[in-house]
Amino acid sequence: MFPTKRLEGKNILVGITGGIAAYKSCELIRYLVTQGAHVRAMMTANGEKFISRLTIESLCNYPVYTEMFPEGRYAATHHIELADWAEAVIIIPATANIIGKMANGIGDDFLSTNLLALHCPTVFAPAMNSNMWLNPAVQRNIATLKNWGYGICDPEEGFLAEGYSGVGRLARLEYQVQHLYRAIHPHPESLKGKTVLITAGGTREHIDPVRMLTNRATGKMGFALAWEAFARGAEVILVHGPGSLIPPVEVESHGVVSAAEMFDTVQRHFPRADLFISAAAVADYTPARYSTSKIKKEEQGLTLKLERTRDVLKTMSQQKKAHQRVIGFAVETDNPLENARKKLIDKNLDMIALNNPSEAGAGFGVDTNKVTVMTRDDARELTPGYKLDVAGEIFDRLLGTGEGGRDD
């Protein structure tokens, strides 16, 4: 999960309908609150049968909306007042019932009436029995909502409440947030029609069946870039090394292990790319010989012969066509600006993002980063912050969609 400042101060409305997955809305609400969002919730009568209003109110720290015309309310328009308040909406879980109502313009309770009055980005996260999900009527309604521009966070395949596996399980929290992040993005079509190829994480160069050469990269920066490209409407291809991160949904993801595998995979997909961003920490060296059995300890020590790996970034830059742009990352601890500029020129890059892992707020395996982006014409230090927000600034600089940072 990526923390982000983009949710801070946003008015987010969560709609909870009658499905067993209603309890999972608590995770989403808690995440939104921790990111500084103002969260309100509305529930259907059936939603209240699965999770109590008190639970949701405790998480939101605000009363839950359920009734169309509650006694004591001063305004007859109470039933649609949230529609003007919300800046983004997510319905979780979205049952076949609420999807059908929305697709056919039916508003017969508080939640469905507000949906019809909304004028902000809205995401539906369906969850239901697999046979219901695959019903032609439900699929027609889903297609209708997609055609109208609503976000659909498709359900996953998994164990269902009925006691068997099938498609219909509520998408995991990371996917819900990924779709909501796209819904609130200020430039959701800035990469529409473009293909972005991104590498992330480290590689592993095996010495024997037990040992390997690797580095501290976790892939967080590269995965954040993939989230950002998805949010901007791109077709995203993510090539990543081993790690614990969950690849983004609706992204073409390819897991690799070694530098050679990363080279071959990037080489295969590079012709499709309009942008190639090499954020992976690819090994510069690999053992010249792999031992099929574990190398035994020797008192006099062990000498390894290493050979250079193929340079993914430089090779792709040499192959790029006129419509393609290649962006690299430089991790430097000594003379960072000079070394990054040398890499930019030597590899003929369109842009390079420099970071120093020894600086506060940067480094491997953390949520924040401190980056300076460089072209042949200038260098600009971006606003230090969460990696997802830094990814947004990198794309702003690439596409000219935002300001920020300072020139050096």
Could you describe the 3D structure shown?
With 408 residues, this protein is an alpha/beta fold. It has two domains: 5-184, Rossmann fold (3-Layer(aba) Sandwich); 195-407, CoaB-like (Rossmann fold, 3-Layer(aba) Sandwich). The protein is built from 13 helices and 22 strands. It has helices at residues 25-34, 53-60, 81-85, 96-103, 110-117, 130-133, 136-147, 173-184, 220-231, 259-269, 312-319, 336-346, 387-399; strands at 11-16, 38-43, 88-94, 122-126, 151-152, 156-159, 165-169, 195-200, 205-206, 212-213, 235-240, 252-255, 275-278, 285-287, 306-308, 325-331, 351-355, 368-369, 372-374, 379-381, 385-386, 406-407. Strands 12-11-8-13-16-17-19-20-22 form a nine-stranded mixed sheet, sandwiched between helices. It is elongated. Residues 404-408 have low confidence and may be disordered.
User: What's the CATH architecture of the largest domain?
Assistant: 3-Layer(aba) Sandwich
Number of domains: 2
CATH class category of the largest domain: Alpha Beta
For the secondary structure, the number of strands is: 22
Low-confidence stretches: 404-408
Radius of gyration: 24 Å
CATH topology type of the largest domain = Rossmann fold
Helix fraction?
25-40%
Main sheet?
Answer: 9 strands, mixed
Q: Which term fits the overall shape?
A: elongated
Strand content: 15-25%
The CATH H-level superfamily of the largest domain is CoaB-like
Task: Specify the number of helices.
Answer: 13
Strand order of the largest sheet: 12-11-8-13-16-17-19-20-22
Mean pLDDT: 94
Oligomer type: single chain
- Structural category is alpha/beta
Query: N-to-C terminal Cα separation, in Å?
Result: 32 Å
